[in-house]
Amino acid sequence: MQKSNPKKNIFPPQPQNRPGLEYKMAPEPEYDSLKPGSNKLLNKKCVITGGDSGIGRAVAIAFAKEGADVAIVYLKEDQDAEDTAEIIMKKYNRQCLLIPADLSKEAQCKNAAKKIINKFKNIDVLVNNAGVHYPVESINEVTTENLLKTFSVNVFAIFWLTKALITHFKKGGSIINTASVTAYRGSGGLLDYSATKGAIVSLTRSLSANLADKGIRVNGVAPGPIWTPLITSSFEDKKVKSFGTETPMKRPGQPVEVAPSYVFLASEDSSYITGQFLHPNGGEIVNG
């Protein structure tokens, strides 16, 4: 169960290897609220990449609370994934399909899609959320290997998985892509990551136009600094300790504070919205 975690910026040194494990973080991110659901996604079939932890976990749990069945595609963090599935199935009595897959590989995207369709038959919501980054101080430190990996996970996987699932979408379906505040204001220490997030913004807008006639909406969420395993597995101790203090709200966000944006975009509450982004970022003003 989730531990009590006041929204304060007190993060001790806790280096982890990528992709990071949520159950090892201190404090543990907040992923569920006390607010009851209202069946906004009742019986919807939803797919969430990177849904084992971080923002993805909070979204998966929020969807289940709203009545959805969920398929979670994740890399290899079995304990985090099983913890998330237990909450979805036991606390909210919804189905949860766990699919380990390396989404940087097209074949594994296709295989994951087959497993999802075999289970759910049709899809109502796809959340392309999986992401990775490799902080650097100079462009000379951006290796070709990391550049290709970052684009493969963050951008190519969206193409591959969406292509594999799109014919199984119901009319009225929703695709939600996770970008970042860095897509709008850049980041000197996250060059390739910021480039992928900018690509996601453009892809989202283009795909929304492409699928509008089919009755499928495509939107995105561009979070600011959120306390997730991506942070502890990527940044040095000094960065982790001060994480989020640069925002107007002077603190990082919690995954549970981001999840409502996805619920809104997945539900009929946003039926006249497509090609747009929401910005849960602690008060930073961006254009977009």
Strand content: 5-15%
Overall radius of gyration: 17 Å
Main sheet summary: 7 strands, parallel
Helix and strand string, N-terminal first? EHEHEHEHEHHEHHHE
Neighbour order of strands in the largest sheet: 3-2-1-4-5-6-7
Gross morphology is: globular
Helix fraction, binned, reads 25-40%
Task: Name the assembly state.
Answer: single chain
* Content-based structural category: alpha/beta
End-to-end CA span: 37 Å
Counted beta strands: 7
Flag low-confidence runs.
1-6
Mean pLDDT: 92
Count the DSSP helices. Answer: 9
Question: What does the model show?
Answer:
It contains nine helices and seven strands. It is globular. About 40% of the residues lie in helices and about 15% in strands. Strand 2 (about 70-75), helix 2 and strand 3 form a beta-alpha-beta unit. It is of the alpha/beta class. Helix 4 (about 145-165) packs parallel to helix 6.
Question: How would you briefly describe this protein structure?
Answer:
This protein is an alpha/beta fold and 288 residues long. Helix content is 38%, strand content 14%.
Question: Could you outline the blueprint of secondary structure elements for this entry?
Answer:
Elements lengths: L44 E5 L4 H12 L3 E6 L3 H14 L4 E5 L5 H15 L2 E6 L15 H22 L3 E10 L3 H4 L5 H21 L5 E5 L7 H4 L4 H5 L13 H12 L10 E2 L10
Key phrases:
alpha/beta, 7-stranded parallel β-sheet, disordered N terminus
